[in-house]
Amino acid sequence: MASRKPYEQHQETVFAISRSKIENFVQCPRCFVLDRRHKVAVPSGPSFTLNTAVDTLLKKEFDRHREAGTVHPILQELGCDLVPLKNANMDVWRENFKGVRYLHEPTNLEVFGAVDDLWVNADGEIVVIDYKSTAKATPVEELGTERWHDAYRRQIEVYQWLLRQLGYKVSSTGYWLYETARNTADNFDQKLEFDARLIAHEGNTEWVESTLYRIKDALDGEGLPWSSDNCEVCKFFDARAYATSTQGEEIYPHCFVCGEVKKEARYGMPAGPVDESRVVLMGCVIVPGEVRPDWLCTNCESKNDLN
């Protein structure tokens, strides 16, 4: 059985990792290792209970059509003939903390994730479905380039990968059944009206296995991995450390490589004198696409080319 305890470096027992934790690693390896190995998790936000209610009601409706072997009227209206999958494992596959599970033996990581639904196409392939709901003036017709939209794409792809590892024939095309509540009505009247859209996604699962190897290396590695450049949590703690230090508390961020206290990287011409023990002046020239760090370790930047 997979361990639920914090990961111990080079442990030999199976370690369970959920689809959402894989996403956490993609977002920021440092935050992931702090969570899985040291039990220092990023603070969670409130539950989206209205979205959960929509998911629950949709599952009830599609279960009735699953039993009857029929196409849901919503799908008929959208020109789709997919039928809900009948499988004895459906209840387990949709249950949080259980879900579809597969042991990736090379890393000893047991990957799992709870699907919203699975349908079947005319070729007998399983089609991964994810329910999404929101409220806008117009229905959601497609996904964009936002970070959370990329996370939605990876979500479908992990489910596709899991089912294929279990030997199922899985379509590369997955769908979001996107329900958009109309927020332009004149009255509430104790109800919300939704517009449904079926948005296709051609999944590419090639990244999944290589990411599992990277996760294993990060869990077994010494110290902590680097933060992602766009990790808002790590940026917050670095900025907090600097702001707190100005009030007399010495908690500047430390270099992941050598352990020395980092300095703030400041861009542009200073209006007055700066404390060179705290600040590194980076100049005014900005190269398109160049990474501009917020903090630098002047002790090892030349050895590690950190700037």
Counting structural domains, the number is: 2
DSSP strand tally: 11
- Given this structure, which CATH class of the largest domain is correct? Alpha Beta
**Percentage beta strand:** 15-25%
Mean pLDDT: 89
- Helical fraction: 25-40%
CATH-derived architecture of the largest domain: Alpha-Beta Complex
Give the CA-CA distance, first to last residue: 45 Å
Q: Per CATH, what is the topology of the largest domain? A: Lambda Exonuclease, Chain A
Q: Which strands sit side by side, in order, in the main sheet? A: 2-5-6-7-8
Instruction: Give, in order, the helices and strands.
Output: EHHHHEHEEEEHEEHHEEEH
SS-derived structural category: alpha/beta
Q: How is the main sheet built?
A: 5 strands, mixed
Overall body shape: globular
Radius of gyration over C-alpha positions, nearest whole angstrom: 24 Å
Uncertain regions: pLDDT < 50 for 5+ in a row?
Answer: 302-307
Number of helices: 9
What would a concise description of this structure say?
The protein is of the alpha/beta class and 307 residues long.
Keywords:
alpha/beta; Lambda Exonuclease, Chain A; disordered C terminus; 307 residues; 2 domains
How would you characterize the overall build of this protein?
With 307 residues, this protein is of the alpha/beta class. It folds into 2 domains: 15-220, Alpha-Beta Complex (Lambda Exonuclease, Chain A); 232-304, no CATH class. The chain contains 9 helices and 11 strands. The strands form 3 sheets. The chain has a 5-stranded mixed β-sheet with strand order 2-5-6-7-8, sandwiched between helices. A 3-stranded mixed β-sheet has the order 1-4-3. α1 (19-27) packs across α2. The longest helix is centred in the N-terminal third of the chain and has 20 residues, at 49-68. It is globular.
